[in-house]
Amino acid sequence: MLLVYCPYCKVERAETEFSCRGEAHIARPSDPSQTSDEDWVHYLYMRSNTKGIYAERWRHIHGCGRFFNAVRDTVSDNFLKFYKAGEPMPDLEALAKEAGK
Amino acid sequence: MSQPFRTEKGGRINRTEQLTFTFDGEELQGHQGDTLASALLANGVHLVGRSFKYHRPRGIVTSGSEEPNALVGIYRHGDQTPNLRATQVELYQGLEAISQNRFPSLGFDVGAVNDLLSPLFPAGFYYKTFMWPKAFWDRVYEPVIRAAAGLGKPPKTPDQDTYGNIYAHCDVLIAGSGPAGLAAALAASETGAKVILCDEQSEFGGSLLSEVSASIDGKDPSEWIAETINKLEQMDNVTLLPRTTAFGYFAHNYLALAERVTEHLPNPDPKLPRERLWQVRAKEVVIASGAIERPMIFPENDRPGIMLAEAGRTYLNRYGVKVGHKVLVAAACDTAWQTAFDLADHGVEVAGIVDLRETPPENLMAIAKARGIRVEAGCMVTGTLGRKRVKAALLGRMMTSGNVASGGQISCDALLMSGGWTPTVSLYSQSRGKVVWDSDKGAYIPGASVQRERSAGASKGLYGLQEVLEDGYAAGEEAAKAAIGKSAKVSYATATGGEAGTGGTLGALPHDRNASRVKAFVDYQNDVTAKDVKLAVREGMQSIEHIKRYTTTGMATDQGRLSNMNALQIASDSLDRPVTDVGLTTFRLPYTPTTFGLFAGVARGDYFDPVRKTPSHDWVVENGGVFEDVGQWKRTWYFPKNGEDMHAAVARECKTVRESVGLFDASTLGKIEVVGPDAAEFLERLYTNPWKKLAPGRCRYGLLLNDAGFITDDGVIGRLAEDRFHVTTTTGGAPSVFATMEDYLQTEWPELDVWITSTTEQYAVAALQGPKARDVLAPFMEGVDLSADALPHMSVKEATFCGVPCRLFRISFTGELGFEINVSRRHGKMMWETLAKEIEKFGGTAYGTESMHVLRAEKGYIIVGQDTDGTVTPQDAGMSWAIGKKKADFVGKRGLDRPDLVADNRKQFVGLLTKDPKVKLEEGAQITTAENPAIGTPADGHVTSSYFSPALDRSIALAIVKNGHALEGKTLYVPMPDGSIPVEVTGPVFYDKEGARLNV
């Protein structure tokens, strides 16, 4: 069971308090009516499904209820960073290098 | 003497405490401190079971949790727990054990005929044989195979025991308490680190418990163990867990331990659990799981009396049991020699030491000579005699030609073997570490750490007592330093004796027998022979993963700890590729078999899943209502009166609602309070409908899509004030709608000033439906004018019911005049009972979910999830009216414009009327245009709802059908096994199409 850090509560808690909500930084297009079919389908369905360093959304569903983001190595399951929703995506390559990947 | 194989002295058993137990009904004696296995051996019982496939007589092979043969059933609370390893079952007064997989008795087992028929059962036998005819599988093959194969029988009665659960955090978890584990505990605990030391055995000490020839700091190993444990017990920062198996190593240093709390006690305190699951989050882990000995693979290596050499030594030195009176030792390594010497020192006749090596170490030869033990070097066992107990061994001698020549025969009543040692890397492997091949040691040992752990001692291939101790101390120091950043000065104990030996062999031994006729077992528990592994290779299996699955080798309860390395070597030889190329299967959890009870813990019976009850629950029970489960909710299905069946009850309930009044508990509907200056804007963006112009005091049906454009939920939303909405959702959709709202609010539109709160459980809701609803309600309401002008259909008002505050909705899911009264949950029972009594005056009735379904279907109201399936758009459902045409955006709007969603041939929501009004369609039935479509014809749609309508006195159905809206009046078919049913496509509204009954 993973250990997840909530950047709002500032605590590390067991995975059972959280729910994972898939890839992070998939923004809803700001003007859907001006978005092409292709781009809309991409927004709806296409995910990178990375083997390796991956930014994903988590929610502290049985805690504060807040959504936040985490960078996880999907191979080792190790988290490299936790950050609040709205903060920019960190440099994944730099994080990977730091973690010795 | 009742225990003919008990030694005169020695061992850790309490000889003054005699225990009586039974095995297959026979009364036997043992001592406190025995395991069932050691007590049976003390009585000369080696035959303890029959093998899985061939029903061959089998005896105890090991002294540990890897035991493949000695699986027994133990009676407790009048039922037996099957497949317990006799080597782990601690003896207590009155213990009742039975052998398994034999009929009619262990001594005479008719299944043993399989052994003679064994040429018929090669590897992959089941795959090859029971292919056809298909129908035979259920009726013939499976019952017969199940009766003949298998191990123990499952218990027949519910588990009488209770199981505990505990969460723990520690700085250093040490798995295993042999010399490495104890040293690690001493070193780690000295720093003040919080340490948990667990061991699967009843006593701490591991291999030291059977060590008598070495000494530590000049003391007997047993004395050093006692001092060490005593010291650790005094420390507040140390938790000692004997009888506790670390069976699972999960991500982020989360480990699961199974503690056997009372199983070893004759009369345990009933308040104590049988087992306790420890869920431990450890900062650092020391794996000190030791090593186990490998069997030698020679023909007939499975007869009772053939055991591992170290097991023989353990039974002798720890339990005071001689495994035989005339013992032959067959080995390829030094350690087995010590067993022979220890046996000789206890006066046991050693029939000889047969060593595969041409030149065993001189010092050992000298000791053997001094004790007068016959040594056969460069020899191997090529077969054994004796059916229920080994009687003699056939010897072979390796010739310079590479062939084996017969070397005569030696009689014995026990044969101890050792092919060398295999480090136990299971936990390391579970931690996702990759083992690496050490060619010097001829073993796989832990490679780099993936998690915060390190292996110590024999589990990483160190065998000399001194180096194991040093490694243990170092591992403990390192773990504590990593966990808490502290070091402490610990003086290392020094060992004398217990040097690491040399030698070892892998794979099948050569022999001079007819290879096609003899069985040399690799995996005892699954009856896999060397021949089976070779056959698998011949039939094309190359990877060990395939060989494992084809032959089932390594799939025993020990996860192949005993068999894997030999199987690998045999496969490697057959493939003519180095062993490292064959691969190694991954060790999975659990490390040893673990009870379902341990995992279930207290989550049994009423605690298995929470039950959510509505305020009417008690009243419904008293009034004979029938419940159905809707998720975790208990909802009333129908209220049978005077012996009615469901059909009659539903017909009466529906008729009463349409003619008079009905009362329905709607408390399970999801309710979300949406509050804030931007509440209307928020709903505007989320739901398809327009909300900004909805006046306070009014309601609107809301439709929720996902961004793909498909319907995900619906419900009536009431506006209580400019900045306050009462949102209702479907019963099942409540959590997901709430999560969706939070998601958009937090991540897409954080600028909106809106607060949302789930209020599903804060309100009790009673629905009054029917022409008399207003009359029933009126006497109890204050602060509201119930007239149609003041409170029209789709309005909401805050008022009081019987003096308690309520939110009164005028809404309908039946097509009749309807009210839904929301009061605080604690007043729900009062409200329900008040209304239930009042409706009697009007000839009204309480009704359940089945009638609710019928009534809404008569009106063509959809149920999301029943009439929709996640691919239905508002247009498909005929609900384009619910879409705010002028809205620039809402969730799902863009999705609805996608080409596939506006294309022709979409499945659309329609009504169906069978040509024969008495025929009711099956929900889920397929719909076709052809009356008798050819097999393989795709369906044009399916029936989503189907009922008998009391109001129409005929069957009705709802469906989604390709181009359904254009097919109104056309005939389609529902092909069923008894023939095709013709149906007419209609609109989905069957009753009161104008809605006149709503607006009264």
Name the CATH superfamily assignment of the largest domain in chain B: FAD/NAD(P)-binding domain
Largest sheet report of chain A: 4 strands, antiparallel
Tally of helical segments of chain A = 2
How large a portion of the residues of chain A is in β-strands, by DSSP E?
25-35%
Quaternary class: heterodimer
Average predicted confidence as pLDDT of chain B:
94
Number of strands of chain A: 6
Please give the radius of gyration of chain B in angstroms: 38 Å
CATH topology tier name of the largest domain in chain B: FAD/NAD(P)-binding domain
| Secondary structure category of chain A | alpha+beta
* Terminal Cα span of chain A: 22 Å
Give the CATH superfamily of chain A.
Folate-binding superfamily
Fold-level CATH name of chain A: Folate-binding fold
CATH architecture of the largest domain in chain B: 3-Layer(bba) Sandwich
Give the DSSP E fraction of chain B (strand runs of 2 or more residues). Answer: 25-35%
The total tally of domains of chain A equals 1
* Mean pLDDT score of chain A: 94
Task: Please outline the helices and strands.
The complex is a heterodimer of chains A (101) and B (1000).
Chain A: E1 3-6, E2 11-14, E3 19-23, H1 37-45, E4 53-59, E5 67-73, E6 79-84, H2 92-98
Antiparallel strand pairs in A: 1-2, 3-4, 4-5, 5-6
Chain B: E1 14-23, E2 26-32, H1 36-42, E3 47-50, E4 57-59, E5 71-76, E6 79-85, E7 96-98, H2 113-116, H3 125-129, H4 136-148, E8 163-175, H5 179-190, E9 195-198, E10 215-216, H6 221-233, E11 238-241, E12 244-250, E13 254-260, E14 275-287, E15 291-293, E16 306-308, H7 309-317, E17 326-331, H8 335-345, E18 349-355, H9 362-370, E19 375-377, E20 379-385, E21 392-398, E22 404-411, E23 414-418, E24 421-423, H10 426-430, E25 435-438, E26 443-446, E27 453-455, H11 465-484, E28 495-496, E29 521-523, E30 528-529, H12 530-538, H13 544-551, H14 564-575, H15 579-582, H16 596-600, H17 617-622, E31 626-630, E32 633-638, H18 646-659, E33 662-665, E34 670-675, H19 679-686, E35 699-705, E36 711-721, E37 724-729, H20 734-748, E38 755-758, E39 763-769, H21 773-777, E40 781-782, E41 795-801, E42 804-810, E43 818-824, H22 828-840, E44 845-846, H23 849-858, H24 893-896, H25 899-902, E45 907-914, E46 926-927, E47 941-949, E48 954-962, E49 971-976, E50 979-986
Parallel strand pairs in B: 1-7, 8-9, 8-14, 9-11, 14-27, 16-23, 17-18, 17-23, 18-19, 33-44
Antiparallel strand pairs in B: 1-2, 3-4, 5-6, 5-7, 10-28, 12-13, 13-14, 15-24, 20-21, 21-22, 25-26, 29-30, 31-32, 33-39, 34-37, 34-38, 35-36, 36-37, 39-43, 40-41, 41-42, 42-43, 45-48, 45-50, 46-47, 47-48, 49-50
Helix pairs in contact in B: 5-6, 5-11, 7-8, 12-13, 12-14, 18-23
